[in-house]
Amino acid sequence: MNACPVVKCTNRRLSRSVLVRVYGNRSELIIDRRQEIRNFVVLSGLGLGPELYGKFTNGLVYGFLSGKAISVPDMSDPDKSKLIAENLAKWHGVQLAGERIPTLFTTLRKWLDEVPEVYENPLVNATFQANFNMTKIRKEIQSLQKRLEELDSPIVFCHCDLLYANLIYNEERNTISFIDVEYAGYNYQGFDIGNHFNEFAGFDCDFNLYPNKDFQMIWLRNYLSAAHPDHDPTREEIEKLYSVVNKFALASHCYWGLWALVQARLSEIDFDYMGYAIKRFDEYNNRKEEFLSL
């Protein structure tokens, strides 16, 4: 989820555009900026992302990918969803130097520590105090970590933020590219896919739009076929991944719920972060029993 201002600059004579991104207030508490630079370099070299042209104290300059962001309904489109699944399979095949260490739970613990006991804004604080018990949330995340680590989901290079605004469709080429790589890095395969399915709800958090099993099974078949082109995935393999993905979708709610609680303290953007956090944790509680029983 992008909380940083971005400006497009175009040289009309050369018909060439770049994007200039300015980091948000104290965003380094949420985002690993060194990893973001590494992501740009690696992905650009593999043809999976725009070229990084430079960085300055509080931002970046990088290439512009032609096309336009898809809409929430587009995420359910059979053709576009197939392109997304196939491109994500490519991302998950990216190899970085060093150890494959998933960042999900270390990030959650870091963000837990950044949530204040009291917010400066009285209205925001009143909403926080009425809706959140951070001791309970911390224990819930510890319990969830134990359940999810038992699944042995592969550790792969993940985007971790596949909402509709980060999916760029080029109609001429019939391709979909992923942008905004500040949260990308090694993580659990199930988390990346489960997070994407949660994003079918859009910023309005209409979780009635969460994809049903029939849709997911087709999506997951497309993904596995692209990831292993020499092997036709079996029903059993797809069912297993379906179970893992939906369990990890619960972690996605914790991830963005905590992100929003931290942003409610730091961000200068006019957005109801506290309300967003409430919606994410409410959906976690609504889906917990259903998904963990799969």
UniProtKB/TrEMBL annotation:
E.C. no: 2.7.1.82
One GO term of the biological process aspect: phosphatidylethanolamine biosynthetic process
GO CC annotation: cytoplasm
One matching Pfam family: Choline_kinase
Family statement drawn from the similarity comment of this UniProt entry: Belongs to the choline/ethanolamine kinase family.
Name of this chain's protein: ethanolamine kinase
One Gene Ontology MF term: ethanolamine kinase activity
Pathway membership, UniProt: Phospholipid metabolism; phosphatidylethanolamine biosynthesis; phosphatidylethanolamine from ethanolamine: step 1/3
